[in-house]
Design a protein that fits this description.
Beta-Lactamase, 12% strand, Rossmann fold, five-stranded antiparallel β-sheet, 3 domains, 19 helices, five-stranded parallel β-sheet, Hypothetical protein af1432, elongated, alpha/beta, single chain
Length: 516
């Protein structure tokens, strides 16, 4: 390139390795390169040297990229600023556009892309200066509108990337991710059909995990694993090739092209990689009229698969930890109940009764999930109570009873150490609170007691009275019902007691079997 005119660029990033790589590349390309580790250093350089363009990261110590852009805009609004960020957001985009930022690059940034962006903003800067002159003669309207459209297109692109990332931010399981990825593909690239496949080595072909964009009958016809020929056979062959190559594919040909399944006019297929290993393939197809897929569509689809892969990997780790924690905690419960023949399966029965009550009381699915978890663990704190107290066949002394009363706090603290399940922890802590405020450990009353804890309290009391214990035989059902109804408004929530009475009368709540 011609080095007679050495354009100067300033690169601001707190990662020295990035600064070194960028300096080496642009120096070899004939540019003059200045570097700074943060916004404060960059302002010092700008006060001493003439710079044609500034590339800046957003997150940096002392002064971040957004503050730097604002300071530059206040002192020299002709200096173009290009932001490099790994976490694009529409809010930051709008804020920086108001302060002289003319382009956004998503990390990791390709050096060639940086150079193209640098050249483009220099051209745009020249256009802007020229338009300022033409504006005086009312001749710069068209060029200004073009620049505005480019900036708006960039914001739209960032908004699309944010939509994709948000779509995977709240997925609850890996199965949800598979459906979310095809739904996102249909929404973002306006595909008529989208499929997510994994390769089943035992079957020797792709196995479809999720589909979107057509009726179930069409799905089966379009991607039937039994198809020997036609569009399904061609699609499977294409998926197998992309899986083997590990590279995205864009076919924007006409209908009936040899590389497309019959009836498909334009198609994209992108591998989904987890730790550089191809996990599956996402396809998107157009069969009707309208424009074919473009390179930008392929970029969006690739970004979708990257977001999906990250969500799958995160969920896989989380689900494994979650399952291990459950197994450990339930192991404690099983060990606890194994110590006492008479309380075996008590936690399971209490959970079942609480869930029946919760459904009848109109609890949401989220509330029922909380009960499903808290129920089996409500007495886990008894693991910290000595056997001579917990298994004592006779009446407890006042001191021994005070020790027993510690188990809700012990159980809640056990879950607190895990840093998870706040609602479940408070239910476990509160399941021995009384409606009139005389319960333990906190003396909560009425609405202060979590509603699910009030449900669990009735279920726990019923099963305790209806079961054989080391110190007494089970009570008669009529007596139990009298005690629970008599406790409405004092020990128990009257609303929960009313529903319990109806369920018990209708035999939807039954006593446990006798201990054999």
């Amino acid at each position: 390139m011609n080095t007679a005119k050495r354009e100067t660029l300033l690169v601001v990033d707190d990662e020295e390795s990035i600064l070194n790589v960028v300096r080496e590349y642009f120096s070899r390309r004939g540019y003059r390169v200045l570097t700074a580790a943060n916004g404060a250093q960059a302002l010092a350089i700008l006060g001493q040297d003439k710079v044609d363009c500034c590339f800046t990261d957003i997150n940096m110590p002392e002064m971040n990229g957004l503050e730097l852009a604002e300071r530059i805009h206040l002192t020299d609004n002709t200096l173009p600023v290009i932001v490099m960020t790994g976490h694009p957001s529409l809010e930051n985009s709008i804020r920086t556009l108001k302060n002289g930022v003319v382009d956004f690059l998503i990390k990791p940034v390709d050096l060639k892309q940086m150079e193209l962006s640098f050249q483009r903003v220099l051209r745009q800067q020249a256009m802007f200066v020229e338009n300022l002159l033409l504006k005086q003669e009312v001749q710069g309207k068209e060029r200004l509108e073009t620049l505005n459209r480019e900036l708006l297109a960039k914001i739209e692109e960032l908004d699309t990337l944010n939509r994709i990332m948000r779509s995977f931010a709240a997925t609850g399981s890996t199965s949800h991710v598979f459906q979310r990825v095809v739904d996102t593909a249909v929404d973002v690239v306006k595909a008529e059909h989208s499929r997510f496949f994994v390769i089943d080595p035992s079957a020797g072909g792709p196995h479809q995990l999720a589909a979107a964009g057509c009726q179930p009958e069409s799905v089966r016809q379009f991607a039937s694993a039994d198809a020997d020929a036609g569009e399904a056979g061609a699609l499977h062959e294409l998926v197998m090739n992309v899986h083997a190559d590990g590279l995205p594919l864009l076919v924007a040909g006409t209908e009936g092209a040899c590389c497309l399944p019959p009836g498909v006019r334009s198609l994209m297929a992108v591998p989904v990689k987890i730790r550089d290993k191809v996990f599956g393939v996402l396809t998107a197809a157009k069969t009707n009229g309208g424009p074919a897929f473009t390179e930008k569509d392929l970029f969006y689809l690739s970004f979708t698969t990257q977001s999906a892969a990250s969500a799958i990997e995160t969920l896989a780790v989380y689900e494994n930890i979650y399952e291990n924690l459950f197994a450990t905690l339930y192991g404690f419960v099983n060990a606890l109940e194994a110590r006492d023949l008479y309380t075996r399966q008590h936690s399971t029965r209490v959970t079942e009764i609480a869930l029946i009550l919760g459904r009848e009381l109109g609890c949401s699915s989220e509330d029922l999930n909380v009960l499903h978890f808290a129920g089996p663990l409500h007495d886990i704190g008894k693991i910290g109570i000595r056997d001579d107290i917990l298994l004592k066949p006779g009446r407890l002394s006042a001191e021994e009873f005070e020790k027993i009363k510690e188990h809700p706090v012990i159980g809640a603290n056990m879950l607190s150490q895990l840093g998870l399940w706040d609602r479940e922890r408070w239910i476990i802590r509160s399941h021995h609170e009384r409606y009139d405020g005389t319960g333990y450990p906190d003396g909560l009353r009425q609405e202060e007691i979590p509603f699910l804890a009030r449900i669990l309290s009735v279920a726990d009391a019923y099963d305790a009275m209806a079961s054989d214990r080391a110190y007494r035989k089970r009570m008669e059902q009529d007596l139990i019902l009298d005690i629970i109804e008599g406790g409405a408004g004092t020990q128990f929530d009257p609303q929960v007691v009313g529903v319990f009475r109806t369920l018990h009368r209708d035999h939807r709540i039954e006593p446990p079997p006798p201990v054999v």
